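FAQ: What does the model actually see?

It sees only this:
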Amino acid sequence: MPGGDGTMRGAVKIFDEICKRKLNISVTGIPKTVDNDIGIIDRSFGFQTAVEVAQQAINAGHVEAESAVNGIGLVKLMGRSTGHIALHATLSSRDVDCCLIPENDFYLEGKGGLFQFLEHRLKQNGHAVVVVAEGAGQDLIPRTDAQKEEKDESGNPVFLDVGVWLKSELKQWWERDHKGELFTVKYIDPTYMIRAVPANATDNSYCTLLAHSAIHGVMAGYTGFVSGPINGNYAYIPLAEVAQAKNVVNTKDHKWAWVRSVTNQPDFIKS
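And it is asked to produce this:
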């Protein structure tokens, strides 16, 4: 059963029912989610392709921003609960001025806020590129009581479009503080372009390895497992453990420190 954390949770229930009925059916999971939010394993199939295409969207946002006076390229990338795509695309691009992810809260107004940082960057370079993961800043977006209770088919809270909201907030901020000055926000949402694009060579070969590993495990008599690499070594991991584990961005490790170093963005910690 290829899929993300929701698929893995469903696979656990199917596996439990098969065990209950004592059926001779093997159940195995293959980690496939572009968000890379499946825990324990090194990475999920589709992630590298997503980062590659996301980088193209960032490059387009940079060109648009650079060609306008006080231009901001705003790129929204996939990532409900984790910001792996935004983080890795930012590091790969080197054109990003600020990366906003769900694991790191941010604020707009005041000292150390996003607006102050962008104002400084626009004065310095004349343009800026902001990458935001779809799950970032959800607590900042105004909601009705009905929207607060809304759930999707999987039971997850329905997210509002942070890209559209942030574009509106940026325009209101500039009109308020810099009335009469030229300002442009170019908003790019490559979500479905990323979802629909064919897998790149790395993901193609990785998927083949995962499939072969899963079949070998089944033929060896195993069931209720997920095949995947752990620290570079392919292993069979209990399905229930993978379904419960999460792979979130650790904002205390070297990768997020690298993002901060590349972008020089604020830490968004209010003093």
